[in-house]
Design brief:
single chain, mainly alpha
């Protein structure tokens, strides 16, 4: 294979640029939770695209194994990766509740948290937000994807998998629309519809499919699938700018509209809850593909993402995501300010630093020892 136009073929290769991308994404999520009017909520979608990329790569690499080993190995690896930090956090929350009675909503949702079905509670009429664990809706979406995708990879012939993913990309907006109409018919208030759709697993199947397509293109199938990658990346700001102009024409100018970058959270105007997910999927899928292709050369953004600091943060980004709301809760309680300037200059850097340190400890003292123990048992 020539150097020009080649793609990496190893199913176990580490992509440092994608670790760096994870770091920027999790930073964006923390910033969004301090500044909810921003449009940085959409970095969560990038994690779903990356999940589709890596999960598909790993599943296709082990597809030749007997079904019991293929499925058992996958679910064991996922459990070892996700459970230690997650259940440590849930256990800590439960201990705090038993001692102090906070967070008061924990008993109401503990069942859905431990079964990774918390995202399904969003459509309940009596749903109430609790900052300390609301972010776990996305882990529930991931877990539900894990129940489905290994079977799809196992049962779908390889040549049919790319067309299947393309079909999912095309149909997911229709599924989002159908879900929103069904929720409206059930009497869910319009102001909650966008959140309910966004929390649904079906609403993110296109993101997982985009990552899967990228993985197959890199590893030997459908190398022409992402020729639109550069144009796809530009779709994000173009659609955002168009939505700003549209909403401005309806409601007039506001600082929060500009801060949202054209993607105000919970918005259902112009059916944003239907089309925005597709725009994000195309843009993030294109970005991932551009980063992992060898023939992109030394793109400056790729060099930035490969910086050792970003790579290190990216490798513990899961722990940062798990722990960040606990840190934000403590910081906001200690420094209760609504000043954007103070939050940007004081709370945001403190949140980044404290969450990084906690996640680093979680990784080295809880997550990594569990993973190493699992690997040693597999070799014995």
């Amino acid at each position: 294979m020539s150097a020009s136009g080649s793609v990496r073929q190893s199913a176990h290769e580490r992509y440092e640029e994608l670790d760096g991308l994870r770091a920027l994404s999790v930073f964006g999520i923390i910033a969004f939770h301090l500044f909810p009017v921003s449009g940085l909520w959409f970095t969560v979608n990038l994690f779903f695209v990356l999940s589709g990329f890596f999960i598909t790569r790993n599943l296709r690499a082990s597809k030749h194994e007997p079904l019991w080993r293929y499925l058992g190995g996958f679910y064991a690896r996922r459990a070892v990766r996700i459970f230690p930090a997650y259940f440590l956090y849930i256990g800590l929350l439960w201990s705090v509740y038993l001692i102090f009675g906070q967070p008061a909503l924990l008993p109401k949702y503990i069942g859905s948290l431990v079964t990774f079905t918390y995202n399904l509670t969003r459509a309940a009429a009596d749903w109430i937000c609790c900052d300390q664990f609301t972010h776990f809706w996305s882990l529930a979406v991931e877990a539900q994807f894990y129940l489905l995708w290994p079977w799809v990879i196992a049962l779908c012939p390889g040549r049919f998998l790319p067309p299947l993913c393309v079909g999912v990309l095309c149909l997911t907006p229709l599924w989002r629309y159908g879900l929103s109409e069904w929720l409206l018919a059930r009497g869910i208030p319009l102001r909650h519809i966008a959140d309910c759709v966004y929390w649904s697993t079906i609403g993110h199947l296109d993101a997982f499919a985009a990552g899967a397509l990228g993985s197959m293109a890199v590893h030997g199938a459908g190398k022409g699938l992402y020729r639109w990658s550069r144009a796809g990346l530009w779709l994000l700001p173009i659609a955002g700018a168009a939505n700003i102009i549209y909403l401005w024409s309806l409601y007039g100018y506001s600082d929060s509209l500009v801060a949202s970058m054209g993607y105000p959270i919970h918005n259902t105007q112009a059916y944003q809850h239907i089309w925005a997910g597709s725009v994000l999927t195309v843009a993030w899928g294109a970005l991932v593909w551009m980063l992992v292709r060898d023939d992109e050369g030394e793109w400056w953004f790729k060099r930035v993402l490969r910086h050792p600091w970003l790579v290190d943060i990216g490798r513990i980004s899961y722990g940062i995501y798990v722990w960040h709301w606990l840190v934000l809760t403590a910081l906001i309680a200690a420094f209760p300010t609504e000043s954007v300037l103070l939050r940007a200059l004081l709370l945001l850097p403190a949140a980044y630093a404290a969450t990084y340190l906690i996640a680093k400890c979680s990784y080295h003292f809880v997550e990594l020892p569990t993973q190493l123990r699992f690997r040693s048992l597999g070799k014995s």
